[in-house]
Amino acid sequence: MDTVQISLGVVITLVVVALLFDFMNGFHDAANSIATIVSTRVLKPHQAVVWAAAFNFLAYFLFQLKVASTIGKGTIDPSIVDHYVIFGALIGAIIWNIITWYYGIPSSSSHALVGGLVGAAIAKAGLGGLISAGVLKIIAFIFIAPFLGFVIGGGLMVAVSWICRNIAPRKVDKHFRRFQLLSAAAYSLGHGGNDAQKTVGIIWMLLIAAGMSDPHAAIPGWVVFSCYTAMGLGTMFGGWRIVKTMGNRITKLNQPRGFCANTGGAITLFLATALGIPVSTTHTITGAIAGVGSTRGARRVRWGVAGGIVWAWILTIPCSAAMAAIAWYIGRLVL
């Protein structure tokens, strides 16, 4: 690995771009954390984003950096990483995020970044630049994460319905307004714990390639802190175009359903983060919302909307990879 050609100025520039991506990740995925509590009117939008942002940042103190290690060492061959690969990966992911945000499509920032890494790595070294086991594991969880969210969210809804079957609906809603605050906090913790670490992994890869960090040493603390801060700030600015899709277009939510959807999503994210698997918070909460809605019958879920989201899932990695490959070529000319 060449550690001479990456100047300090280039490193600083790419760290700033990475933090910009992290900010956009929080901005883009804010709807995942707040859609249920906004659509059920537990909190007003500006209150909800502050609530979510605070718990996004608090994840900094709770989770080990297993996801960062997977991104940093488990997706592409570390020996091919240089500033061109990092530039291509980040630009490809950012462009895809902007496109999907503009059209209100709940796509995955996580998979946009993975796709960016894959595209840039292939542009430089062909398929041999990929670590197939790591990439395939991430691809598998495109399907596993929403399925777990679906099953856990639906199961929780069945349990809540049975427990509250003899309680007046007004009283149930009153209690679950409070419970929803807790479930939204838990989901935001899971979002911060999984998503912020992906940018941590990218910056760590860059520092290792530049000879500024030892791959066998701990990840520098300033990298972790700055990524969690950028994620939290991005969430505070919110992604309002996507809130409506996630909140009520998939299925109609009330307080108990919102609680079960957020809790199902949070449990899935905690599990994935503990295993060190980068997953899509968008996929996870979409699956959980659909699972909650399905307990009232399949017709209660707008499968056409969910199907459109699934197409975005399928297209994210190849589209961001293609954009990253083009950005890699451009980076070779301008950096």
UniProtKB/TrEMBL annotation:
Membrane disposition: Multi-pass membrane protein
A single GO BP: phosphate ion transmembrane transport
Cellular localization per UniProt: Membrane
UniProt superkingdom: Bacteria
Pfam families: PHO4
GO CC annotation, single: membrane
GO MF term set: phosphate transmembrane transporter activity
Coiled coil: none
Swiss-Prot/TrEMBL keywords: Membrane, Transmembrane, Transmembrane helix, Transport
InterPro entries for the chain: Phos_transporter
Segments passing through the bilayer: 6-27, 48-65, 85-105, 112-132, 138-164, 219-243, 303-330
Main localization, broad class: membrane
Name under which the protein is recorded: Inorganic phosphate transporter
